[in-house]
Write a structure and sequence with these properties.
The complex is a heterodimer of chains A (110) and B (116). Chain A is mostly beta strands. Chain A is built from no helices and eleven strands. Classes of the chains: A mainly beta (110), B mainly beta (116).
C-alpha cells in the first residue's frame, strides 16, 4: 500500500535524552513536513524539506533536528534542548496540491 | 507572510443543525492551495477538500459544502444537517511559496461537538 509510515506510535523518553522519530513514504513525493500538536492545539510546523539533502526550519525548530538523506525518509530528532517535548508529532508528504499524513507518534517525557 | 486563522475555537451544535466553520488566510503568493482536514479522536488527519487559487467555484459534497472567496481571503466550510459522527477537530490549511519553498501551514483548528 502507498502511504506514510510513522514509527513508533508511542514513545517514552527520559529527560535529557535524544530520541528519533521515524517517517517513511513510498509516494515518491519530494516535499515532506514535520508538525507538532499539543493537546487542544493546532499543528505547528517544525521542519520541512522540498528535496533530498535540503530542509528548512519551520516556526518551532528550536530543540529539533532533521535529515533528508533519502527521498523516502525524513527522520526527526527531538534533542535534550527541547524543554517541553511531550506532544503528538505528525509527519506529512505532499505534492503541490495535496498532503498525506502519517498516523502520528505520541511522545511522552517521563 | 503566510497565515491561516480559524477564529472559532469550539462550536457546539445539536444534531441536524447546520454549522459553518470559518477560515481566513493570508499569503502574498498568487498561486496557492487551500485545504480542509478532519481530525477525529484517533488523531489521524482525514483529507476533505482542496481548492487552488484560480478556482473560486463553490463545491458541494453530500452534506459538506465549501465557500471560497478571494475578495475576503476566506474559505469557509459548512456542514448541513450535522450528525454526531461529524464531531472532530477541523483544520484549514494553506500551501504557498515562502522564500522559494512550498510551505504548508495550518490554522489552530475548530473543535466541533455535535450532540444528539
Amino acid at each position: 500500500d502507498g502511504g506514510i509510515t510513522q514509527s513508533p506510535k508511542y514513545l517514552f523518553r527520559k529527560e535529557g535524552q535524544n530520541v528519533t522519530l521515524s517517517c517513511e513514504q513510498n509516494l515518491n513525493h519530494d516535499a515532506m513536513y514535520w508538525y507538532r500538536q499539543d493537546p487542544g492545539q493546532g499543528l505547528r510546523l517544525i521542519y520541512y524539506s522540498q528535496i533530498v539533502n535540503d530542509f528548512q526550519k519551520g516556526d518551532i525548530a528550536e530543540g529539533y533536528s532533521v535529515s533528508r538523506e533519502k527521498k523516502e525518509s525524513f527522520p526527526l530528532t527531538v534533542t535534550s534542548a527541547q524543554k517541553n517535548p511531550t506532544a503528538f508529532y505528525l509527519c506529512a508528504s505532499s505534492t503541490t496540491d495535496r498532503a498525506f499524513f502519517g498516523q502520528g507518534t505520541r511522545l511522552t517525557v517521563v | 507572510a503566510q497565515k491561516v486563522t480559524q477564529a472559532q475555537t469550539e462550536i457546539s451544535v445539536v444534531e441536524k443543525e447546520d454549522v459553518t466553520l470559518d477560515c481566513v488566510y493570508e499569503t502574498r503568493d498568487t498561486t496557492y492551495y487551500l485545504f480542509w482536514y478532519k481530525q477525529p479522536p484517533s488523531g489521524e488527519l482525514v483529507f476533505l477538500i482542496r481548492r487552488n487559487s484560480f478556482d473560486e467555484q463553490n463545491e458541494i459534497s453530500g452534506r459538506y459544502s465549501w465557500n471560497f472567496q478571494k475578495s475576503t481571503s476566506s474559505f469557509n466550510f459548512t456542514i448541513t444537517a450535522s450528525q454526531v459522527v461529524d464531531s472532530a477537530v477541523y483544520f484549514c490549511a494553506l500551501s504557498a511559496k515562502s522564500g522559494g519553498y512550498n510551505k504548508l501551514i495550518f490554522g489552530a483548528g475548530t473543535r466541533l461537538a455535535v450532540h444528539p
